[in-house]
Amino acid sequence: MSELKQELKEKIIEQLNLEDVSVDEIANDDPLFGEGLGLDSIDALELIVMLDKDYGIRLADPKEGRKIFESIDTMAAYIAANRTN
Amino acid sequence: MKPVYINSIGSVSAQKTFDNKEFLNEIRDYNDTVIHVIDPNYKEYIPPAAARRMARGIKMSTVSSKNALTEAGIENVDAIIVGTGLGCIGDSERFVSDIIKNDEQFLTPTRFIQSSHNTVAGQIALGLGCKGHNFTFVHSAVSFESSLIDAKMMLQNNEADTVLVGGVDELVEHHVTTHRLIGHIKKEPVTSKDLLQSKTEGMVMGEGSHFFVLSNKKSNSCYAQLLAVKTFNTLAKDQVQQKIIALLEKQEMTIKDIDLVILGNNGDVNYDDYYEQLSASLLKNTSQAYYKHLSGEYDTATGFAFWLANKILKTQNIPESVQLNTVEPSKLQTILVYNQYRGENHSLTLIQKC
Questions:
Q1: ipTM score here?
Q2: Domain Beta-ketoacyl synthase-like N-terminal spans what residues (chain B) (predicted)?
Q3: How many domains does chain A divide into?
Q4: pTM passes above 0.95
């Protein structure tokens, strides 16, 4: 699980062009949206595409994303339970 | 009709033009077939959270438009008008590549958002909170002039008091590759100083972003008055002279009233004779300047020429690096800019010291 969390942090930084953020600066329980990492609705769409492309998880209801993308912890737990590749 | 003043300028180019206090004090010489802009420190202008999603063209334009607004001493405008040959072509390329690579699946929003030509005008408007007229003109080498014409008409007819007008184009890999394939880029590198003597086919490709605040009210920062802009899709070589004379006649001027002509020579042996024949005839006794050895060639390179013309009028100095002949002007009051690209999309722009 810790490897997956590390991988997610790297992917988020790369995919969302967070040039000034390093992996070490993202705590596993930091909120990704709002006050934490400050991601927005366009980033949410990028993350939904990332789940589909990299882990074979297609979100039927985009509203699910609100809980899944709360933090690295919640993302990793959801991916571990639902990944198809 | 109201007069149109150029109240401020902002530029990002292959020279250090982003600092309005300087005027080609140090020339960056190149020996290449493609030249990129000298990047300002974007972090000084754009918050990191906003910059991370911006294409190069948007970053360049954010800097040049901010510099123009700051110099004009205003925070917003009535209209934003941008000319661009290819818009944010980098993201367009990546978006289309992703479609192919991922078999039409997994398309992400950011590149799609920026893959339209009007992204720059839209992003500037969002940044300023400007809900006024927002237009993008895409018309090859007269894209910038098309924007100028729109702004000029709006200001003359009192439809706006201040307009932010700009031209922007960015260099990206695939675009360069295709232009090499069709032979529009020079095969061999050429030094900036030798560009016009290269006598080879094609151009040295460049990029840049140039923005100006135009107004029907003259400000303390005013550079010049915009007298006339005219574009022609096609012109035979022997028609250019007539068109210049006709444009000047409409302003009740003759060629003797022109103190400096800025020409768009780009070193392409097949098309520079449009300029050379003028240099040797109508403009023989007129001071001449050129600039594409400093900026490179791109659809909105005339934005650099417009920047140069305004700077010359304000500083009353023609930098040695742009002088094309040895005719010394007795004064620097009126400047004509003439450009064409591969024999098409000709433009004439006339400005006068204010």
A1: 0.74
A2: 46-217
A3: 1
A4: no
